Amino acid sequence: MSFVAKLLVMVGCVVPLMVIGAVVGVFALKAPSGELWEKVPELHTILRAGTGVILGGSLGAGAAKIYIALNDDEVHL
């Protein structure tokens, strides 16, 4: 598998899961509530979306690594 193919697999796995993670994060993840969030509610949404992006990107990177390892013709020792 060439470097370009590996790069396309990584981007194809990571980016969609980052977007999905951000959407899920905005609606599902719990973040602390209190006086700060009442003053600046945008921070609350950004925090949840950012957490979702990080989790989604991590899942995508793991999926891409597994896919590349299973479909790579080279032997890595």
Keywords:
about 80 residues, mainly alpha, about 80% helix, about 0% strand, rod-shaped
What does this structure look like?
The chain starts with a helix and ends in a 6-residue tail after the last helix. The chain is mainly α and 77 residues long. 10% of the residues are buried. The protein has helices at residues 3-28, 35-39, 41-71.
Mean pLDDT: 83
Which spans of ≥5 residues are poorly predicted at pLDDT below 50? none
Number of strands: 0
Number of H/I helices? 3
- Helix fraction? over 70%
Terminal Cα span: 16 Å
For the sheet with most strands, the description reads: none
Order of helices and strands: HHH
Give the overall shape: rod-shaped
Instruction: Estimate the strand proportion.
Output: under 5%
Radius of gyration: 17 Å
- Please identify the structural class as seen in this structure: mainly alpha
Summarize the structure.
This protein is 81% helix and 0% strand. It is mainly alpha-helical and 77 residues long. Helix 1 packs antiparallel against helix 3.
